[in-house]
Amino acid sequence: MLLCSGAPDLPLRPVRSSVAAVQARETPLRKDRNVTSAIPFPAAVLLPGTGSDEVFVRAVFEGPLRGVGVPLIAPPPPPGAALAEGYLAVLDTLAEEHGPLLVGGISFGAHLAAEWAVRNPDRCGGLLAALPAWHGIPGPEPASVAATLSADLVADAGVEAALAQAAAGSPAWLSAELGRAWRRHGDGLVAGLRVAAGRPSPTLAELSRLAVPAGIGTCTDDPIHPTKVASEWAGALPRSAVGETTLAALGADRESLGRATVLAYLRALRQ
User: Fold this and answer.
1) Domain covering 16-140+190-269 in this structure, CATH number
2) 3-class SS at 33?
């Protein structure tokens, strides 16, 4: 279940940045809609994690991006086995329509955005990567194993039984997100989970050649998307910063993860 790993739904805690400590409610992200953006792109195109959807992407990123004058494009997931290649084709189409893009996503969506950016450095102007789960071939990485186990469970028991089992060990907000998104994926859910579980993300060497500003967002208490991986991505990318929040904060305020990632990007932009 790559949307996020489970954690108790605790009160909101401040968002932290590895560059400078910034409290979530003190950040200057709320601006007038007519502001001229400091980010020179017509839109940010952000992709969801495995088994998730564009509804969650909007909940996380739409407000923080609006605060810096950047509209969000959040395409719905392509069905089933077409998940990865379908999203890469969507990014190609949007780049043809709009020119260079600010791209990114959450978990597997961040992997795909980075993969596209590495392939298309002349069409990518920046990267927003929240909760990267691995680099290179996944192997026994926690998120890959979780996606495989989820696919097996849905295939064997059906989506409703799988959701019931997931709800038993998850906070209410995560259960609700999974329930909406998994049912929307329908018959394509298992194939999509398996595609994500086995697909390599860019290697650190490939990321090191991507010279665009990159904001990396991480939840420091998330064992499925380890902060160590986010730090390794940031260490490889030439212009990058890491923004930190927690699963507890995310449970209370979806935008906490978006703020952490956008603030990190703004710092990388000044490098």
Assistant:
1) 3.40.50.1820
2) coil
